[in-house]
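Re-run with default settings, no changes from the original entry. Doing this only to confirm the output is reproducible before filing.
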Amino acid sequence: MLNSEDLLRMIDVLHRERDIPKEILFRGLEEAIAAAVRKRLGVGDDLIVTIDRASGEIGVEDDEGEYEFELAELGRIAAQACKQTFLQKVREAERDVLFDDYETRVGNLVNGTVQRFDNDNLVINLGRTEAYLPREERVRGETFSPGDRIRAIILEVRKDGPRVKIIVSRTHPDLVRRLFELEVPEIADNIIEIKRVVREPGYRTKMAVISQDPKIDCIGACVGVRGSRIKAVIDELRGERIDIIRWSDSLETLIMNGLKPAVIHLDNIYADVDRHQAAVVVDEDQQSLAIGKKGQNVRLASRLCGWDIDIKTREEFEADGFGPPDDGEFQPPLDGPDEHESSGAEAANGESQAADGGSADLAEGAPSAQAGASDASQAEKASPIRAEKS
């Protein structure tokens, strides 16, 4: 059996190798020795074993007083039972330490090495433990072999019997967020804020950013010199396309930016506040760009803005009953330089702000003083409904 010095040395080694607090190890050993002594002496559960943290001396006592007991008196069978109980306590303590450590890292990025396949799960070695990448959390088309380096987001941490089960993901939008935090120091320093990320894994991602410093271009900083920063992220995502847009608190500007690379005019966005929908009128040559392959571009833009977006050409928009009716009660803005001559300077200024990713709200602008009362009334009726995103 261990003497006092060997016992303290063993506690110290377990503490350093497995990162388990010494107090937990001492308590586990006290419980294991107490169970063995009770069985050996045939006494009740009131027997308590204490270990001096400094000297390693073992004390045994119950309601009747202290016992002078040496560990050598336990016998082989009781000593083996004590060892097994203590090892179980160590495993439970190690599981709790791992759980507490990784539970605080949910949503963070981890680096690992592909170790093996376990049915549909990809087992990743994280160093101290293993993580599982399920099939549904893998990007379609990505293939890995044992030994490959891999990055993923911690999705879930739970206790599974004597082990800790860590589930990671490569499809979560936060993977893109964390990768940009690594590549763009301005994001890590909170100078540039990632407002929202929407993603169709393996195909396309849209990320809205905003700069807290007007001197720093948020989009340029994320792209990097000659695209070096965004290229590093795209390489990690195996070629997934990434659109970086400028965030705006103006719904119309956000929709206009979100539908890029299609060219959208701010006056051609009609928001229905009650139904949380927006109709966007585009030129015929921009319709396919706005919709995207299999509707991908408009679908991601809708998720980014939080509104349903319906792309229509001018003919489709008027055919649906939104064109100029006979009674003249509703008239959407018309294309061309003659539109609202009295407020042409305001419209030009709004488009300039929108091109820079700024917020332009034409609905709140008053008609020009040169316009007559009838022109102001007509402009008010023709203006689309504006809604600021909450």
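The chain is about 40% helix and 25% strand. The domain at 263-390 is CATH 3.30.300.20 (GMP Synthetase; Chain A, domain 3).
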